[in-house]
Amino acid sequence: MCGIVGYTGFQDAYDIVINGLRRLEYRGYDSAGIVLEGPDNKLEVEKTKGKVDDLVNISKDLKGKFNIGMGHTRWATHGVPSDRNSHPHLSNNGKIAIVHNGIIENYDTIKTMLTEKGYTFKSETDTEVLVNLIQYFMELNPEIDFPTAVRYALNEVYGAYAITVLHEDYPGVLVVGRLGSPLAIGIGDKEYFIASDASPFVEFTKEAIYLEEGHMATISLENGVDIRTINDNSKIEPEIQQLKLSLEQIEKGGYEHFMLKEIFEQPKSIHDTMRGRLLVEEGVIKMAGIWDHVERFKNANRIIIIACGTSWHAGLIGEYLIEEYARIPVEVEYASEFRYRNPIITDKDVVIAISQSGETADTMAALKLAKEKGAFIYGICNVVDSSIARITDAGSYTHAGPEIGVASTKAFTAQLTILTLIAFKLGKHNGNLGNADFMSLIAELDAIPKRVEEVLSSTHEQIQQIAKDFVSTSNFLYLGRGYNYPAALEGALKLKEISYIHAEGYPAAEMKHGPIALIDENMPIVIIAPKKGHYDKIVSNVQEIKARKGKIIAVVNKGDRQVSEMADYVIEIPETSECFSPIVASVPLQLLAYYIAVYRGANVDQPRNLAKSVTVE
Ligand code: F6R
C-alpha cells in the first residue's frame, strides 16, 4: 500500500526513483509521482493518476539531469485517485516537498488551524496538511532548521506514517520519519537510498538500516545518516543490517507473472519453511520460538489466532491442526473484529498473529490490544524484521521468500506448514500425539514438497484447458469439509481478487442451508473431495449438486471413482493424511484462479483496488 523511493548520490536519480517505483508496484497503487532537486536547488515535480508508465510518459525529460530526488506510488485513502491528490505534495511556499505512506488521523483539525492562518490546499489529502505544517513551524520558529521543523510537525500528528521530505533551502538533504509504516535506508558507496522495502535498492547495496518506530533520519552525502527519536530528539546509533534479499528473488525469472512464479516456487518455499526445523531422521521438530515458551502454550487456557484475508484462512486450518493434534482449544478471529468487540483476553491466553507482510494495520492493532491485556504473543510472519515480527514475544518466520504477486500463494502454504509444525510439536510435547503417529506424520510432512511438485506438473496443462471454459462465468461456489472448508474459502478468495468473478466458499454441508438455491446449469462448483476427510458425506453433497445440474469441478485423489463419475471436470491430487490436504489441494485452485484471470485479461499481479500490505485500518 503506497510506496516510497528516495535517492541521493552520483547516479541518475530519475532512473533510480522510477525503477524503484516499478519494484514497489506490487504493493498496489493508483497514482505515481516524482520530485527531483536540481543544481539550482529548484524542485521539479511530476505526478499523475495511473501507473508508473503514465508517470514516465509525462516526466521523461527529467531523465539524466538530477542526483537527488524521491518518488511515490499512492493507494488512495483521503481523496480519489487523481493528478491533484497524487504525491509529492508541495507546501504553500513551494519550497518543501513530501511523499507519505499511511494516514494522518488528526489532519482535519490541523487543516482547520492552518486554513485560519491563511494556508490553502490544492488536494483532498492528509499529506498536504503535513507538508504545510512543516512550513508553518519553520515560519513560526525562524531559528529552527528543516529537520527540526519536520520533527515538530511529526510530534503534532497522530496516525501512521512513513515520510520523506525535501526542502529547496536545504539542498542535498533528505529527511525521513516512520511510525507504523516501514522505511529502509540503503547505504551505498557515496550514495543513499530510501524505500518502503529493500527491493528498489538491493541491486546497488546489501547494507541497510531499517528505521525503527518513532525514529527519523536526516540523510546527506556530506553528513551521512543522522538518526533521532521523533519525540525528544535523542541520537540513535544506526544498526546496519546485511540484506539477505537477492535480485533474482524479486524478478519474474522467465514467468509471465509473479503470481505464477510464486505458485511454482511452492515445493521450494514449503521445503525452506521446514528447513532446520523438521529433522525426520532424529524424529524431532526444532522450533526455538515454541520450545523456549512451551510451558506458556501447554498451560494456555486457549490459543487465539488473529489474522486477515488469506492469513485468516491459514489460521482456520491452524485451528483444526492444533485442536486435533495438541488438544488445546483454539479460536480464530478476524483481527479487525477482535479489536473492536471488547474481547475477553487474559494472561493465560496465547495469541498467534499470522501475517505475510507483517505490516497489516488491523492485525498489528489487535495484537497490541492482546499484549496490553497480558496475553503471550506469537508471530508467524514472512517478512523478516517487519513491524509485527518486532513486537511479538516470540515467533517463527515462514521463509517463503519475497511474495510480490498481490494474491498470496506461497506465503499461504508456508503458513500452513508452520502451523502444522507447531501442532505436531505441541502435541508431541503434551502427550496427545503418540510417538508412532508423530513419526509417521513428520515423514509425510517431509514429503509434501514432492507432492506439491507432482500436483504442479500433473495439473498445470489440464487447468489451463478448464480455465478457458469459465472465462465468461459470473459466479463460482467453492465447497469443502473439515480441513478443506478453509481451503474452499481460500480458493474462492483467490478467484475473486484476481479475476473479479464473484466467488463464495462454504462448508459443503452448509450448502443445503442456503447456497443450494443458487445452483443451476450455469453455476460452477469447485468441490474439494479427498479420500481422507468425510468422503462419503461429500459424495452426498456432490449428488445434491448433480441433481440440480450444477457444473462440478472436483479436486479428488488419484484413482477416485464415485465423485469423479459425477463431476464435469476432475483434477487429481495425490492422497495424503487429511491434515496435509489443504496444502496439496490449494495448488490447483491457485492455478485455476490464475488462468481464469489471465484469460479474462486481468492484471493478475496488481489486481484493482488491492494492496499487498494493508497498512491502514
Ligand atoms: C489475499 C491476500 C490478503 C492478505 C491480507 C492479510 O490473497 O493476500 O487477503 O492475506 O491482506 O495480509 P498479511 O498476511 O500480510 O497480514
Mean pLDDT: 95
Largest sheet: 8 strands, antiparallel
Terminal Cα span: 12 Å
Radius of gyration from the CA trace?
Answer: 26 Å
CATH level-four homologous superfamily name of the largest domain:
Aminohydrolase, N-terminal nucleophile (Ntn) domain
Percentage of residues in strands = 15-25%
Gross morphology: globular
Ligand list = fructose -6-phosphate
Q: Helix tally?
A: 20
Q: What's the level 1 CATH class of the largest domain?
A: Alpha Beta
What do we call the CATH topology of the largest domain? Glutamine Phosphoribosylpyrophosphate, subunit 1, domain 1
Measured as a percent range, the helix fraction is 25-40%
> Number of domains in the coordinates?
3
- Structural class call reads alpha/beta
The low-confidence parts are none
The number of distinct β-strands equals 27
User: Order of strands in the sheet with the most strands?
Assistant: 3-2-4-1-10-9-11-15
Known CATH architecture of the largest domain: 4-Layer Sandwich
Keywords: Aminotransferase, Cytoplasm, Glutamine amidotransferase, Repeat, Transferase
Subunit structure: Homodimer.
Catalytic activity: D-fructose 6-phosphate + L-glutamine = D-glucosamine 6-phosphate + L-glutamate
Pfam families: GATase_6, SIS
